[in-house]
Each structure stands twice: as structure tokens, then as C-alpha cells.
Amino acid sequence: MKRAKRIGAPPGIVTLTTDFGGADGYVGAVKGVILSRFRGAEIVDLAHDLAPGDVRAASEVLLRAAPLFPARTVHLCVVDPGVGTARRGLALLSNSQLYVGPDNGVFTGVLAQGGDPLARALENWGLFRDAVSPVFHGRDVFAPIAAHLASGRDLRDVGPEVAPASLVRLDDPVPVADADGLRGQVIHVDRFGNLVTNLCAPADGAASVEIAGRRLALARTYGDAAPGELVAVVGSSGRVEIAVNGASAAAALGTSAGAVVILRAPRESS
Amino acid sequence: MKRAKRIGAPPGIVTLTTDFGGADGYVGAVKGVILSRFRGAEIVDLAHDLAPGDVRAASEVLLRAAPLFPARTVHLCVVDPGVGTARRGLALLSNSQLYVGPDNGVFTGVLAQGGDPLARALENWGLFRDAVSPVFHGRDVFAPIAAHLASGRDLRDVGPEVAPASLVRLDDPVPVADADGLRGQVIHVDRFGNLVTNLCAPADGAASVEIAGRRLALARTYGDAAPGELVAVVGSSGRVEIAVNGASAAAALGTSAGAVVILRAPRESS
Amino acid sequence: MKRAKRIGAPPGIVTLTTDFGGADGYVGAVKGVILSRFRGAEIVDLAHDLAPGDVRAASEVLLRAAPLFPARTVHLCVVDPGVGTARRGLALLSNSQLYVGPDNGVFTGVLAQGGDPLARALENWGLFRDAVSPVFHGRDVFAPIAAHLASGRDLRDVGPEVAPASLVRLDDPVPVADADGLRGQVIHVDRFGNLVTNLCAPADGAASVEIAGRRLALARTYGDAAPGELVAVVGSSGRVEIAVNGASAAAALGTSAGAVVILRAPRESS
Questions:
Q1: Quick one: which of A4, A62, C65, C80 has the fewest CB in 10 Å?
Q2: For range B174-185, the mean pLDDT
Q3: Are A28 and C66 in contact (CB under 8 A)?
Q4: What is the DSSP code string of A79-114?
């Protein structure tokens, strides 16, 4: 069986997260290089419609999806507005998952999950494509490295080790405790218009949430509100989210990333 | 060979139909869980850009695509606006295809194709992920069940049998015969702006179609009309469609789902 | 191992390039037919969000991606506004890659790469689905042929040979040398708003580019310009591109396909 043959071996999966969209040849070029370098690769699309250059959105996608894959899956991320400049290319091993992409913050979310990452800079030109275009490292640098790692070859081949502390991280806002409770903010708006905050769910589950002058009790799911009504829930990534049942909270509140959200402990909620 | 090894076994294919779009981590999370539960799964994307909560569109996708897959393919559908509420989760066996998703109407189209479906409610928490988020059953309930079925394990494991008659079905409009002919309606507008109706193609192929005060002879294909002109054809799902050659009929007529369409028999057509 | 088993055999990969989008069942229907006909097929999505009927965009996707795949990959392209009319269906072998789709210009880019293509018209109805819809050859004609070829069966089975010179090619504009230098044009605008021209990069790399009254030195990469500033680079397909660092050149210049671009040799650049 396919499964049995791979025990002890890397799984051969390569996931792709890009801002390439679905109307150009860029996604296909990356896939072609991966399969030409390692015919056994299993390519899995995560997300290709990120806004151009949206490094934070890439970090969110990887944070939510990558840890759920089999160990030693290779997650290739090409959201790379600084392609061809001095920014480094990276290969990471973090919590048993492998990552390849630019050192520009796309790995902020996975690095925040801890687990003693190992990082190497991509400097072994012998592994890249023969001619490296300064405007498409996704195809010419990252894809060959992803194939290299997916085929089970050594992370140490790709280039010198770099200190995890030196990796670029997005400047994530940290919630602040004040007289009102815990003051955080909206950090992501998803396709449904749900407002994902940087506020972790309270352990006891009982709290209220304030946004745009509205106070909401923390509910279990979207359908706990009437259709069209605002609702605050603990989202699937463990962070507080504000939603509208059956519609977009972002549209209803005219709110986007950066909006202030306050989490009040139960005793302050009444 | 891959093929030979699977004779008599389920094919291991899992298709995905969702409203998750291409810019968030939700599609990736579902895929990660499936592959972690069953490494031999072959994941095939059907459609991820359905409008949020558009249960009818999900039904259309499954109706058109699912029956064409090898027997015992698992079709996972996550268009689930009522996630975490009392709505049931389902696994179905219908016409040799397996389906997993919410009991909210997404299976209306495949159920209408008959074939004595077997249905079970997803109640075996031992198969789900350890912590089930009330807002993401796609990841925590449906994905593990899809992996379970794709790996060839028993449909009976997932929970108790439920009566097919009890499954939620969308209230599909039925064409009505009257003095004008057969009066139906537009039930879907596709990406090309083609208007898909609920009128089955007449057996003899000869008929005319009325929409928005226009009468059209039933043609063979789009190119039978001049560029920019309206044309009525028998669509690829066997239902009458109104299109514009090289443009959008929905835009040209200002028409959307619900618009009345009348099919006249040949003798009435002149 | 999967790889070893396939030495000498076709790779079994089928790539898909369509204008079907992500909200209808058309992509899924094509995939279902391919997998039902050849269970060993590995389906790889290239691009599904081409504008409806955009044959030139399809040609661009194939040009950029197809040559990078393992030899004998089958590239199925369904951008087919003339479906069901007298336009031919084709199977091509060109530079060791196989192509299946309509004879409407989608293969212009790959044919321009030379390599003595072999072409056959799809006329063997015995290979098609039993009932061929005049409005969905992607599902009923091209998908079965793609499965046929991916499974290693003979290109000669599909129908009679046709002269490569007879194949439909888009009327690609050719740059013209004049007193100003080499006068070309924008032929594609990508998702980033980058303007891809039909001007090949000068061998010595030193030149300037004129567009919309602006003269730009040819730079190495986007980041060589300040954020928000125009920059001309040699794009990843070897053609001159005009971009804006971190934004859309198409938006900044109000420019689309057809705009004049002039490449000046170094001695004229000062």
C-alpha cells in the first residue's frame, strides 16, 4: 500500500500558499518544477488568492492549516514582494513541519507556536534552477528546494543555519490589560466577513466582547444570534471572532483590521 | 500498478466543495486533517468559490460533477451556515457515491437522482477530532469522517441510520403546464452568465423558449447565434439554458434566478 | 516506489487550464471523467479563473507552465467559446509535452516554441463519452482523450494527423524596429498589474524602456525601484515587463494590453 511504503519516510506532500491568483501561469510553473524535480511529490493547494504581497494573510493561512498536515509535509509559501532583493530565502523545520519561502514574515504565525525551529538560508545554488530569474524565486529557488525536502533529502543541504531569533517576524500587536478589560484588535477579516481578533478565548468561556460601541456576550456559534445579528464566538483558531449570522460583520460594522476589540471578564460583563 | 492494487477497494478519492474561497486557511485545514487521518487519500478540488452559505449552488456542483467520479469516491461538502446548531451532519451512499456534509440541502440534487440512498447521522464522536469547534465542523467532524470512508472503513461506523425521507431538501420549483406550454424558471446563473432553467430538454429536440418577452428556437450550441445574440440550448446537464454567444445572458437580460421561462412544444412554436 | 514503477512510462499527470471559475460544477465534471477513465491520473490545476473565452490568456498560462512539467504530461485546456461548432478538437505532441483542447489559438504560445509538433484532430468518437453534449466538449471529448493519453495509450488513436501549419494561431503582434528603437506592445496584464510586453530582453541587459511618455532604465527586480515607483525588468518568461514596486503598473498608468512600449539600445539611452 502507498501508506506502508512510506513509513519512516517523509510524506512527499508539498502544500502551496501564494498570491498568484487563478488566471496566470505562475502557480502552474511552480508545480511543474516541483514535479520535474521529484515525481513522487503530492501537491496540495492551500490558498492562491491572497491579496498581492499580503504577508500577514500568508502567515494566517499557514498558522491555521500547516500544523494539521502529516509530519514532514513541506509547506511552500510564495508571497514575496521583495523577490530578488537582499531578503533571504529560508527553509525551516518547526514542530515537525517543513517550510520554504522568503524571510519576510510569512512564517510569523508558525514561529509563534514555538517548538525550537531550525532555520537555514537558501544559499546552495547547485540546488536551484540553472538560470534564476530575479523576479521569480518561487519557480527557480523555492520550488526546487521544496522538491528536495519532499523527496526526503537533507535540510542541511540547502545552506547555512541561521539563528531563529534573526528571522523576520511581523510586528504583531499584543492585547493590553486596562481598566476596561483586555484591549485587543481585529487582525484578519476572512471571506465571510468574520472579524478575527488577537484575543484568546477566556478559559471559562464566559465573557463579553465590545466592538464599535456594541457589547456582545460570548456565544457558542453563529446560529446563536438571529439572522443578520452580530455575534461573538471563539473562532476555530482559538481566538475571539465577531461575526454576523448569515452575513458579513466587516460590512455591517464598516470595520477592518486594526479596529479595537475589548474582552471583559465575566464579573465586569453585567 | 496503483490501479491494480485498488481493485475491489474504495478509490481513496475525496472531493471538496466549499464556500471557503482561496484566501483563508480553511481549505488547507480540511485537507491537512484528511491527509493526517488517511495518508492514501487523493484530494480533488471541485469548487471553493461558492457564495458564502449558498446551499443551492453546492447542490448544483455536486449534481453536475459527483456522479462522474469512480464508484465510492467521497464527496465532502462544507457549505454550512448552520454549523454548530441542531442541524445534523450526514454521510450518504447514493448511486455508488459517498457524500459527507451538513443536512441542510446541499445534497438536494444528488438525492433527486434517486437510487435508494442510505443515510447516517454523524454521531460517533470517537471518529471526530478530539476538540470539536462549534464553528468549524468541516475540519473537526466532516474531514475525519471523509478520511474514514475514503480509507474503506464502514459507513455504519459513523452513527445511526436516518430515513432518507427525513433529509433536508431545498424546495425546488417544479415546472407547471399551462396554456402557454411548460412554465419553469431560472434556477442557476453560471460563471458565463448562462441561465440554467429547471426545464428538461424536450425529447424531440424541437421547441421554442420564451424569456423576458423574447422567443427563441432551441439551438444546438452557443455559436448557432451571432456573437452577442441570445440563444437557447439544451445545457450539459440536460436542462434548457439561455445564453448569449460570447457574453453573459444574465447581464444582457438583467435576469437572475427565479425569472420565468416558458418552453413551448413544436406545434405551438410558429 | 511510485517513481521507479513509472520509468519509461508516461507520468500520468493531467494539468487543467480553464475559464470555468470556482463556483460551478464544470471543473469537477472534467476531473470526474478523467479519473473514471484512468484511475492513475494525477490531476494538477494550473488556472481556472481565466476570463470567459480568453484564448490569449490560456496561451500565456500554457507557455509559462507547460514546458516545466515532466515529459509526456498531458495539458488539457478548455477555453472554448466555439464549443460544438466546426472548430476542431486537437491533441498535440510538442517539445515532449502533450496537449488536448480546441483548435482556437490556445496553443499559440507553445507552438511558437517550435520543436516540430505532431497534431491530430479528435475524430475517434469511440473514445468520447457515449453522449457528447454540443456545449461541453471539455467533459465529453477532451477529458476522455486526456485520460487516454495520460494512461500511455497512443496519440495516433485519437484521429487523423493534421498539418501543424493548419493550426489556428492568435495573430501575435511582432515588434518593429524603427528610429526610436524596437517598438512593441503590452500583450498581457497579470494579477499584480505587471505589464508583460512582446519585447525580448536585450542580450547585454542594458537598455531603457519607454511607455506612456516615461523612460525607464532596465532594472534587475521590482525592489530596485522605490515603493510605488515604476520599474522595467526582464520578466520571468524572458520578456520585458513594466511594474510598480508594491502596486499595479496597469492601474498607475491606466494601461492595458495593446499599449505601445519602446525598447532602446544602450547607446540611445542616455
A1: A4
A2: 91
A3: yes
A4: --TTTTSSPPEEEEEETTEEEEEESSSTTHHHHTT-
CB contact (8 A) between residue B28 and residue A22: no
Q: Do C31 and B46 touch (CB under 8 A)?
A: yes
> Quick one: what percent of chain B has pLDDT higher than 70?
93
Strand, helix or coil for residue B77: strand
Residue B266 — pLDDT band, cuts 50, 70, 90? low
In which band, very low, low, confident or very high, does the pLDDT at B10 lie, cut at 50, 70 and 90?
Answer: low
Domains and CATH numbers, chain A: 13-166 (3.40.50.10790), 176-268 (2.40.30.90)
B7 has a pLDDT exceeding 70: no
CA dist., res. C48 & res. B112, Å (int):
29
pLDDT at residue B9 is higher than 80 = no
Would you state the pLDDT for residue A180? 79
Helix A26-37 vs helix A143-150: angle between axes, to the nearest 10 degrees?
40
- The answer for B215, left when phi > 0, alpha when psi is -120 to 50, beta otherwise, is beta
SS percent in chain C: helix, strand, coil, step 5: 25, 30, 45
DSSP state of B157: G
* Radius of gyration (C-alpha) of chain C in whole angstroms: 21
Contact C39 B2 (CB under 8 A): yes
Mean pLDDT of A239-258: 96
The answer to whether A92 and A107 have CB atoms below 8 angstroms apart is yes
- The structure's pTM equals 0.95
- Which three cell numbers mark C86? 466546426
How many beta carbons lie within 10 A of that of residue C251, not counting itself? Answer: 11
Which residue type occupies A208? S
How much of chain B, in percent, has pLDDT values that exceed 90? 87
Residue type (1 letter), B25: G
For residue C51, the number of C-alpha atoms closer than 13 Å in the C-beta half-sphere is 12
Q: Give pLDDT tens digits for A91-138.
A: 999 999 999 999 999 999 999 998 899 999 999 999 999 999 999 999
Contact between A75 and B38 (Cβ < 8 Å): no
Best CA proximity match to A220, nearest among B132, B130, B121, B24: B132
pLDDT of residue C3: 38
Give the lowest-confidence range in A130-144, B201-215, C23-37.
Answer: B201-215
Neighbours of chain B (3+ CB pairs under 8 A): A, C
Q: Smallest Cβ distance to C236: which of A2, A40, A136?
A: A136
Q: To the nearest whole angstrom, how far is the Cα of B67 from the nearest Cα of chain C?
A: 8
- Nearest-by-Cβ selection for C135 from B66, B70, B222: B222
Place of cell 412554436: B269
Report helix, strand or coil for A25: coil
| Nearest one of A73, A63, A28 to A48, comparing CA atoms | A28
